[in-house]
């Protein structure tokens, strides 16, 4: 028997898939997309989801910002690398414009050559890995989970599993999304498939 959550995820995936270019629908990298294909698009869905929520479908590199009347804005995203993507239900606990960034201790331990030099942090700006805006994901149990939905100035990473666990949009699109998303917004990061 299928759970309500699985039904909702399947409905969202089917909706997002129906509106995607065929090459982006694969469960692999959706690289090589043109700027026009990366543009946000309003799509329809039949899932049992209310308006004003964020849903990330990692197998399809899609983030949905739900609207009313069975519609959502579809954005393409980059997601966490294998082993670093963390599915679950979260809420937006903080929002920051041109956020500063500090790598987690786990990131420094995984790749000290790349991250140790930023142990004291990096101020916000165009070279910052969090980009122009960031939505900070919290849970009631943990508080800040150190997961973010954020910008990037590397559009070539959209449609790939490249980040340290976060979802990234191109800077122009995170600015657009950021302006619409209030604090306490529900965010669902769906599990990746096993294949």
List keywords for this structure.
single chain, 195 residues, alpha/beta, 9-stranded mixed β-sheet, two-stranded parallel sheet, 5 helices, 30% strand, globular, disordered N terminus
Outline the secondary-structure elements.
Layout: H1 4-18, H2 35-38, E1 41-44, E2 54-57, E3 62-66, E4 71-76, E5 79-80, E6 88-97, H3 105-110, H4 112-115, E7 133-139, E8 143-152, E9 161-163, E10 167-170, H5 171-180, E11 186-189
Parallel strand pairs: 2-11, 5-9, 8-10
Antiparallel strand pairs: 1-4, 2-3, 3-4, 6-7, 6-11, 7-8
Radius of gyration: 16 Å
Structural class of the helices, strands and pairings? Answer: alpha/beta
Give average pLDDT, whole number.
84
- Reading the helices and strands in chain order gives HHEEEEEEHHEEEEHE
For the termini, the CA-CA separation is 21 Å
What is the tally of helical segments? 5
Major sheet strand order: 1-4-3-2-11-6-7-8-10
Contiguous uncertain segments of 5+ residues: 1-7, 17-30
Shape: globular
β-sheet strand percentage: 25-35%
Counting DSSP E segments of at least 2 residues, the number of strands comes to 11
Q: How much helical structure, as a percent, in the residues? A: 10-25%
Largest sheet: 9 strands, mixed
Q: What can you see in these coordinates?
A:
- The chain is an alpha/beta fold and 195 residues long.
- Helices cover 20% and strands 30% of the residues.
- It contains 5 helices and 11 strands; from the N terminus they run ααββββββααββββαβ.
- The strands form 2 sheets. It has a 9-stranded mixed beta sheet, with helices on both faces. It has a two-stranded parallel sheet with strand order 5-9.
- It is globular and about 50 Å long.
- 35% of the residues are buried.
- The model is unreliable at 1-7 and 17-30 (pLDDT under 50).
